[in-house]
Amino acid sequence: AIAPAATWQSAWEHLTGLEGALDTEMRYVYGMDWEMKPGKLVSKKGTWLKVNTCFSWELNDVQKLYLPQGVVMPVLQIGKVVDPAELKRHDWVVQHLRVWMRPGIVRTLAARRNVWFIYWPHWEDQGLTVTSLADTWIKRTTQMSGELQPFELIYVAKGLPLHLAEEPGPVDEEWEKYRHNHVHMHRRVVLASPPLTVKQDQYDIFVGQNTPGAPQQPQPQQPPLR
């Protein structure tokens, strides 16, 4: 006998659901940076989602995705590193974890790759360009600069412009809005292109951007960090 249409519809929806369940992304995380809870990971500090177990500074921007402290990341499964090639990379591979998640999470993090935060009183607003009025920072999160790891912020000397993809906006991400009493004095900015930096001690120093059509800025003298 031919099954009723409703049964076929139910079977089709079930199959579609199974296909959706199999549509996952796998990434590596450094386990010490995360608190494990049922069905989710919570970042204990600023950290990375990586395509492999290489040290984060060995990876380019496409191979890693930043997550600030306090983000709750839903995961479907967590496992140990088992790939022989990965296990040979360095002594800290065993402290990494494999995590599986929905592709939408990866897309969301990738979409905010050029998102930074600035302390608004330190900048002059010129629409799609903001210029630093004092020696300051651009930060990956609204946390106080003194609380951040060196890779989470970039030093910007007074007088340098940042070229933006859109006008500065308020801080609207749930995990950023309530960090401290001065979050409202920050602005969320999306850079028109990645920042160019040089390294001084352990910090990155901003020297410009590869923005098409924008005049290249002369490389500033590297000021002492404060």
Give a summary of the structure in a few sentences.
With 226 residues, the protein is α+β, with helices and mostly antiparallel strands. The chain contains 4 helices and 17 strands.
Describe the structure.
With 226 residues, this protein is of the alpha+beta class. The chain has 2 domains: 5-111, no CATH class; 115-209, no CATH class. It contains 4 helices and 17 strands. It has helices at residues 5-22, 84-87, 103-111, 174-177; strands at residues 25-30, 34-37, 40-43, 47-50, 64-67, 72-74, 77-80, 96-101, 115-119, 123-125, 129-132, 136-139, 153-156, 161-163, 186-190, 195-200, 203-209. The strands form 5 sheets. The protein has a 6-stranded mixed sheet, with no helix packed on it. It is globular. Residues 214-226 have low confidence and may be disordered.
Features of the shown structure:
globular; 226 residues; disordered C terminus; three-stranded antiparallel sheet; six-stranded mixed sheet
Helix content: 10-25%
The biggest beta sheet reads: 6 strands, mixed
Strand-and-helix sequence, N→C? HEEEEEEEHEHEEEEEEHEEE
Distance, first to last CA: 80 Å
- Order of neighbouring strands in the sheet with most strands: 15-9-12-13-17-16
- The helix count comes to 4
List the uncertain runs: 214-226
Strand-helix topology:
Blueprint: H1 5-22, E1 25-30, E2 34-37, E3 40-43, E4 47-50, E5 64-67, E6 72-74, E7 77-80, H2 84-87, E8 96-101, H3 103-111, E9 115-119, E10 123-125, E11 129-132, E12 136-139, E13 153-156, E14 161-163, H4 174-177, E15 186-190, E16 195-200, E17 203-209
Parallel strand pairs: 13-17
Antiparallel strand pairs: 1-8, 2-3, 3-6, 4-5, 7-8, 9-12, 9-15, 10-11, 11-14, 12-13, 16-17
Region (Disordered): 207-226
Biased composition (Pro residues): 215-226
